[in-house]
Design brief:
mainly alpha; two-stranded antiparallel ribbon
Length: about 110
């Protein structure tokens, strides 16, 4: 994949996250949640102080062709029945991480602040 195509793919994911946050928190202005330009250091989705109050997360986006965690998520989806799938992953000398669907995660944050 060309570098330009990879950057466009990453930018599209960042913009989807930005749009999801703005959709769930209509009191925020478009300038409160911004997608960072490709190649810049720091957070991929920049939040204003107002946005940080309702969405206290630092967002890093990775849009790759294959990530092994999707295999685990697919297995969880197969076994979850009517429940929300949750995958907990951990590598050596690192904290465990929880993996949930982005829409579900944004719903959780939105409901917490209503």
């Amino acid at each position: 994949m060309k570098a330009q195509s990879a950057k466009a793919k990453g930018r599209k994911l960042q913009q989807a996250v930005r749009d999801g946050i703005l959709k769930r928190f209509p009191a925020l202005e478009p300038d409160d949640v911004r997608s960072t330009g490709m190649g810049q250091s720091g957070e991929d989705v920049q939040l204003s102080p107002a946005a940080r109050k309702v969405f206290p997360y630092s967002v890093e986006c990775k849009n790759l062709a294959k990530i092994a965690v999707y295999n685990y998520y697919d297995q969880c989806m197969t076994n979850c029945g009517n429940h929300e799938p949750l995958v907990v992953i951990k590598q050596n000398r690192s904290k465990p991480l929880a993996v949930v669907d982005l829409e579900h995660f944004l719903d959780l944050v939105e409901n917490k602040h209503e």
